[in-house]
Write a sequence for this structure.
């Protein structure tokens, strides 16, 4: 799957089948459903990719302290640029390792 196909799927009411939990959370975030995305990453705290998305979600909501915690836990530097550019970067990176 490419970024453009992933973005096009946001027009659907249900996510594409076979997405990892982290990509599923990014899909819901892309549909502006922060709560659904957060619920997914919160239930997958042992998954480093979910922790990275969890960090991004808290950065998006403006909770910088919580975001820093999750970025550290995920082993990634905290993002500082455009929030939606980081969303795209996350999608691309996670798609590249998903087997899609």
């Amino acid at each position: 799957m490419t970024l453009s196909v992933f973005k096009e799927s946001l027009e659907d009411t249900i996510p594409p089948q076979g997405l990892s939990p982290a990509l599923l959370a990014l899909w819901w975030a892309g549909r502006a459903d922060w709560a659904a995305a957060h619920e997914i990453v919160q239930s997958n705290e042992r998954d480093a990719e979910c922790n990275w998305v969890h960090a991004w979600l808290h950065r998006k909501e403006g909770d910088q302290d919580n975001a820093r915690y999750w970025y550290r836990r995920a082993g990634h530097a905290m993002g500082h640029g455009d929030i939606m550019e980081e969303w795209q970067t996350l999608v691309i990176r996670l798609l590249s390792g998903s087997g899609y």
